[in-house]
Amino acid sequence: MNKKLRIGFLLIILLFLTSCVERRFESMKMKKAMREYDKEGLVLSDGSFYPDKITDFSVDDYLKWYKGLSHPLKLQLPKVQRPKELTKEQRVEDFNYFFDQIKNNYPFFGVLKRKHKMDFLNNYDKYKGMVEACKNDEEFRKTMEEVMLDLKNNHTRIADRDYVLKTMKYFSKNWKSPSIYYEFLNLNRQVVRNRYGIDGVQSDTEAKLDLDRRSAIFDNISDNNLEFDEAADGIALLKVKSMASSDKYSQDLKVLKEFLQNKHLYKALAIDIRGNTGGNMEYWQNFLLPKLITGPKTVTNNLFFKESDESKLIFADNSLNVERLSNVDISAIKLDHTDDLKRFDFYMKEVLTINPDTSDKDYGYPGSMYLLVDGEVFSAAEGFANFVKYSNTATLIGQNTGGDGITLGVINSVMPNSGLVFTYTNTLGYDPAGKINEENPTAPDILSKSYRDSITTIQQLMGAKN
Predict the structure, then answer these.
(1) How many CA atoms lie within 13 A of 447 on its CB side?
(2) Which GO terms describe its molecular function (predicted)?
(3) If exposure means fewest CB atoms within 10 Å of the residue's CB, which of 120, 287, 317, 454 is most exposed?
């Protein structure tokens, strides 16, 4: 063996030994730390916490423990490892965990039967057989995606890495919400980080603390989220591609200010949200609409929930006025398909009021407003369309929207063995007309087949007014 080969061989051995030493040292540190838990066996002596310990809690125990926290804990996040292939029994256990959560929380089984002639819960044996037939973890993931497609709801899915990471970063900014902090810890568990190859996220103690789980569905717009143009003579156009996160506000505010400073030039404003699949409720509730309206706007929605651990976590947020359905007389409220409510336990009357933002002298557009919609309008964008219609803020033109915009947001849950994250909504949301928004998405005031047809319709309406 020549000198260069010997040196190379020695370097390889040295690197291997160094790696072994590092792993052994990391393991020793972890074992030492694990021996230094507080008397409850939860928080380490240095005030840090292993997220995997979250599985030791019942929901009631977690809420008691959470109330004793004065600040978010520093998380112990061991290095990500390659996940081991699951056994058949572990995949079935994960499926059963998923199925029980959907059974106990999902609000749209009645809608599924009426719209799609499907009894999801009755398909348990079929779905279990599909899982048992999986030969590896990738087949299991694809099978679970297929099962979730039968729920016919875009909030219900197996999450990808990008979504999981964005959710962790978003939830890191609000440890003041017990349900958000619970899910934040859950997503930081080793099994999740191994599955998705994520190092983990610490709490952001400098962030504001008024964020909402209804905002935790993310846009995919990289730039130019809001665009201002002239659709036709006397008609301004604001194209809103996504209900964006707060990092877009400064950029979008420049566009809004340009329009508002020139609003006197236009007799009508068309807000185009066609193709907008949602994002953050805060975008239109706290940013877009307050800039455009000249007076307060209000709608009332009716929300229903099943009793479950997941609901208990959400209701622990004191800002929600939730009551037991058995204690409330809703007989005077006009609601479709009240037979569905026999399976629900809690009720929330949501009175949503948006006030104008008067901080800028150019706030508010006093002319006629029109909202352009289509079947791709969903989630937070659907919530916007529904609010605008029932608050008489604008005339809707286009096609029926996609629905499921009246909700408290999504639940992010974790399969115990695979670490796969699955999401779903637990809110049966009725709009002000008493219709289930998922079953009866917002209908336009005026049907239109195309953008050009919609602008022509606005021109005709302006002519009639003139």
Answers:
(1) 2
(2) serine-type peptidase activity
(3) 317
CA angle 60, 90, 145 (to 5 degrees): 90
Nearest Cα residue to 169 out of 412, 398, 6, 347: 412
Q: Is the pLDDT of residue 31 over 60?
A: no
Strand order across the beta sheet in which 446-447 lies: 226-232, 235-240, 268-272, 368-373, 395-398, 446-447
Place of tokens 């409330």: 328
Q: For residue 109, which amino acid is it?
A: F
- pLDDT tens, 135-155? 999 999 999 999 999 999 999
Q: Which CATH architecture has domain 226-464?
A: Alpha-Beta Complex (3.90)
Alpha-carbon distance of 215 to 208, in angstroms, equals 14
**Residue 121 near residue 172, CB atoms below 8 Å:** no
Hunting for tokens 């030039």 — which residue is that? 265
Q: Which residues pair with 436 in a beta bridge?
A: 430
Two structure tokens written together for 9: 């061989």
- What span, in angstroms and rounded, lies between the C-alpha atoms of 153 and 293? 32
- List alpha helices for 160-298, DSSP H: 161-171, 178-187, 190-196, 249-261, 281-282, 289-292
Cβ neighbours, 10 Å, residue 59: 17
Contact 396, 373 (CB under 8 A): yes
Considering only CA atoms, which of 233, 336, 240 is closest in space to residue 292? 240
Burial 244-266 (b: 16+ CB within 10 A, else e): bbeebbeebbebbeebbeebeeb
Give the tokens for residue 45.
Answer: 């002596």
* Residue 46 confidence class, pLDDT cut points 50, 70, 90: confident
Contact call for residues 431 and 300 (beta carbons, < 8 A) = no
Asked if 426 contacts 106 with a C-beta cutoff of 8 angstroms, the reply is yes
Q: From CA 199, how far away is CA 185, in angstroms rounded? A: 13
pTM comes to 0.88
CA end-to-end distance (rounded Å), the chain: 95
Distance CA 460, CA 466 (A): 10
For the chain, give every residue range classified as CATH 3.90.226.10: 226-464
Helix, strand, coil distribution of the chain in percent, nearest 5: 45, 15, 40
